Amino acid sequence: MAALDLAADGAEKTAGVIAEAGGEGRANQCDVANPDSVWAAVDRVVADLGRVDVLVNIAGIGNFAHSHELALSEWDRIIAVNLTGTFLMCQAVLPQLLSAGGGAIVNTASTAGVIGQPYSAAYCASKGGVVLLTKALAWSESSSTRSSVPWGSASPRRSPARSRTSRPTRPVT
Ligand SMILES: NC(=O)c1ccc[n+]([C@@H]2O[C@H](COP(=O)([O-])OP(=O)(O)OC[C@H]3O[C@@H](n4cnc5c(N)ncnc54)[C@H](O)[C@@H]3O)[C@@H](O)[C@H]2O)c1
Question: Which of 57, 83, 110, 127 to mutate to test the pocket of ligand 1 (most atoms within 8 A of CB)?
Answer without folding.
Answer: 110
